[in-house]
Amino acid sequence: MEKFFSAVQNIFKVPELRKRVLFTLALLAIYRLGAHITAPGVNSERLEQVWQQVSGTLLGILDIFSGGNFRTISVLALGVMPYITASIIMQLMPVLYPQLKKVQEEGEVGRQKMNQWTRYLTVALCAVQSFFIATWLQGNGVIANTWWLTILTVTTLTTGTIFVMWLGEQITERGVGNGISLLIFAGILITLPNAITQVVERIRQGDAVQTLGVIFLVAAIIGLTALIVYMESARRNIPISYASRRVGNQVFKGQESSLPLKFNMGGVIPIIFASSVLAMPQTLFSAIPADPNQPDTWWGQVQQFFSQFRGGDPYYEAVFIGLIVLFTFFYITIIFNTDEVADNLRKHGGFIPGIRPGAQTADYLNTVMTRLTTIGAIYVALVVFIPQLLLAGFNVARLPLIGTALDNFFTTTPGLQWIPTGLGYQFFFGGASLLIIVAVAMDTVSQIEAQLVMRNYEGFLGAGSRLRGRRQ
After folding, report:
1. Neighbours of 280 (CB within 10 A)
2. Mean pLDDT score, 326-337
3. How many Cβ atoms are within 10 Å of 132's Cβ, its own excluded?
């Protein structure tokens, strides 16, 4: 702890770093202030009633990435989700349109063009999403059903997201860390007091089953945090050698380098993809009410199945994990093209020792990435599944053949009664949230650490710096 407080003090000894940190904190405070400004015309009591019906739908996922702003329909209700969606689309587009690939290869000019197009796409997505949200709010009696209020809601929510996007870019350029990631981080972190309050209240109740469940939950969060730190820090370093070169009369000796590869290159993107796909059925069937007079029709049976197709359902969990693995592999093929990496190495005179440049290098990298991605996909699936198991439970009664027997076993075994139904907490602090918090915290701390060490101050980790104070 002494090193931690010493590092915090050192931050404020560096004028430029102090300015960046205070600037970041100020913009995060402004962002949280916007969460308390409700959009015009919203009936808060009716909204809370409606919200109880949309848990597990696309709207619930949207609330996670809006930092809880969507639950109250604040002026920042859409949060950064449209920007994230636009960024993902722009990452995928060069695969479909080679012209965009050429723009990407134009260096800084190309990057600025892609960023500008991402902003335009974000505004377009905001307009579409806010229109459907306004329609949904009117249909549920949350706002009045008038055309001018529809326009006002669309304008308010779109402007709010543009403002959030601007805040994120300002933090990235003039603050510390990645601005968009920090905004999501702040939104999730604000739910911690409520989560801690619920945990403490369960312990105070003195229920042995609930106390045991709380112990499992806390142990799981600590264990998963350690796992995330380890996996996000882990690298597979591929050795790279560069041949000697002659430039005029000078001969440059060959150099040794490495290509670091992460186990989880996709971050939380596969989770977003999988969650969005699985939330579509709930969103659809919550919008189309069932006919109570015809429960035995095929449509009624489909609705009955999907009414239980949410967190804790065995079918849901199996499909969810499968989609996470699928989207992890899919996204890696988009952001890490082994053929391009091998070609770039060959152009710059680099090679992997023992591997021929060109096709063999691409095949080798593809094999390595397949193994790393398999481990990474399993890791991400575990990070998502374990907290969901504790919070939502695992409804084993839905399993064919052995479901009833397993349900009876768990419900009658002391200490295991919580498994079929979960611990019953109303907060969402799942694996995706935990992954975002830990990854963003690690990235931000590493940036501050680099700034401190560069100026000869001791950082948070201590090992990378040489002095406790500034060198005189």
Report:
1. 11
2. 88
3. 10
Nearest 5°: the CA angle 365, 366, 367 is 90
For residue 452, CA distances in Å to 4, 7, 22, 171, 177 come to 13, 8, 16, 19, 14
d(CA 267, CA 435): 8
- Does residue 123 surpass a pLDDT of 90? yes
Q: How many whole angstroms separate alpha carbon 349 and alpha carbon 338?
A: 17
**C-alpha–C-alpha distance, residues 276 and 61, integer Å:** 7
Could you give the CA distance from residue 319 to residue 274 in angstroms, rounded to a whole number? Answer: 9
Question: What's the CA angle centered on 275, arms 274 and 277, to 5 degrees?
Answer: 65
Domain boundaries 1-191+458-472, CATH class: mainly alpha
Q: What is the domain partition of the chain in residue ranges? A: 1-191+458-472
What is the rounded end-to-end Cα distance, in angstroms, of the chain?
26
Nearest partner of 47 among 138, 109, 124, 122, judged by Cα: 138
| CA 271 distance to own-chain centroid | 7
Q: H/E element holding 241?
A: strand 235-242
> CA 188, CA 211: separation in Å to the nearest integer?
25
Cα-flanking dihedrals φ and ψ of residue 13, to 5°?
Answer: -85, -15
Other residues' Cβ atoms within 10 Å of the Cβ of residue 19: 12
Instruction: Give which of 446, 441, 444, 443 is closest to 461, Cα–Cα.
Output: 446
Do residues 79 and 183 make contact, with C-beta atoms less than 8 angstroms apart?
A: yes
Nearest to 124 by CA among 152, 93, 89, 97: 89
Mode of pairing for the β-strands spanning 235-242 and 255-262: antiparallel
Give the pLDDT band (50/70/90) at residue 307. Answer: low
Round the average pLDDT of the chain to a whole number and report it: 81
CA atoms within 13 A on the CB side of 74: 22
Of 91-95, 130-134, 274-278, 460-464, the one with minimum mean pLDDT is 460-464
Helix-, strand-, coil-residue percentages of the chain, each rounded to 5: 65, 5, 30
